Predict the 3D structure of the following.
Amino acid sequence: MLAWTPQHGLKAAGPGAERRLLVADSWLVRDGRMRGPDRHRERFLRSCAECDGPPLRRLLEFWQDMTAALPRTGDWFPRVELTAESPELRLLLRPAPPLGSEVRLWAAGQPDPRAVPRRKGPDLAALAQVRRRAADRGAQEAVLVTPSGVVLESATASVLWWEDDTLCLPAARLPVLPGVTMGLVRERAVRLGVPVAHRERALAELDGREVWLVNALHGIRPVTGWTGEAMTAGPATRAAEWREWLDGLMQPLPDK
């Protein structure tokens, strides 16, 4: 863990109690390349502004120092943070976990535990508990739903699905995180003339459909199995081509 100050840049953080997160953002770095660096920066800056974080000039200085500190070899999953107590900007450098090309979902919709669903960071601990419950039931992820059962997203990824030739996303009014990778996918669909629709669906209405989990670590993972309910994963007929396109968006980080 590295803490940042304007005077000294990034230095190893001293020991201390776990700090409450106001904002966090993370992504895959593979041999010095990542997807959507400007999009992650803008989301982090916007989120910090929402909770009266440091001034923009300081945030941009931190982002520049953070980018320079990212490793240029190997697979990494760094996380940038703004903490609540004596607000501090930090960089957590951690190796990337094994990447997946498919995913198994727990079909029992989980009540959304988040207090701030549109900002990543404050609810990471609660979402980790949801994932642990899913793992206990033989799944890698769980789907969050509204009190009425409408699909929102998973604990760590956006949920997209296909209805015939239409790419579907949760309705814009729903409390979901503005996913960077989801935005890239949606924009490509628009460029290609693929119909895109925002819809409200219960989990059971995804039965037999091609469903994707989409995030900055794994990219696009088609759902290839469900646990907990008698649901069938639809054939992942489009996923491979879209994954190849998404992998091609990795761009080199600037020189140190």
In short: The domain at 2-92 is CATH 3.30.470.10 (D-amino Acid Aminotransferase; Chain A, domain 1). The radius of gyration is 19 Å. The mean pLDDT is 95. The longest helix spans residues 37-50.
